[in-house]
Model the fold of this input.
Amino acid sequence: MVGEPSWPGARIMSRIIGQVIETRLGSEIDYAPGANAVIFAAMDGGRGDIDVHPDVWLPNQASFTNEYVDEKGTVALSEGSYEGGTGLCMPSYMTEEHGIASVFDLATPMAQDLFDGNGDGKGEVWVGASGWASTNVNLVKVRDYGIATFLEPTTEDEAVFYARLKDAIEAKEGVAFYCYAPHYVHALYDVTFVEEPEFDANQYNMVQPDQDADWFNKSSIMTGDQVKTVKVAYSKSLEERNPAAAEFLRRIDMDAGDLSELTYHTVILGEDMDAAVAAWLDENTETVDAWLGLN
Done:
């Protein structure tokens, strides 16, 4: 069983993993939608409820890997990875027409007016969907940068937000939102990352809810994000239950550019996800063979 978190890149990665295991290793695959905490707990159980998390962003999800990989030793991480970037974004016209460029420009009365999409007198900033580790990071950032005084953080589902983003950009309205790369939004719209101070580990103290119930008050962030390393996680029990699958998951090494292209084709162009993934696998047999240790 392959876990399927809600964001597009993770869903595509789940299908890449599932199709390789089905077509090249001959095992049956099902997909299980779920948040990070649910998927990691199931992998820890080792009963096959969920065996794989396809898209683990580090250090965002480090609280889970610290517990299940480092401490308990029940979950393993792939040796391969791809690089991810995260931060707040806005349409480029907000800089070009209004001079807003940095996170500190968002903590102003002008931003409060420009980013007020619902007319309640306070702006909004989408910090991510509920259940994402990055959403908690962004809630802390918005507070510590002083943005929350002027922009209300929102946490609706990604699909709901992106429908609103489309309308806002077409109307050239102010909109600020959590974004990451690889992601189709960078191909779809002219958006830019909001400037933040360069990453400084001494200014980045993030405690996740699974570590402490008082995580929000005990966290503090006054720096941009570290460049992310994105890996696949899998239950160590697979090493006995399905050694070939475990070896494949250890070797898998995705390219960020290919993943961005697949998200664009499936989310924006509306191609069937399973068909798009199958076509990509057919076109990249040497890559897949390397994941399987055949070359």
Summary: The chain has a mean pLDDT of 94. The chain has 14 helices and twelve strands.
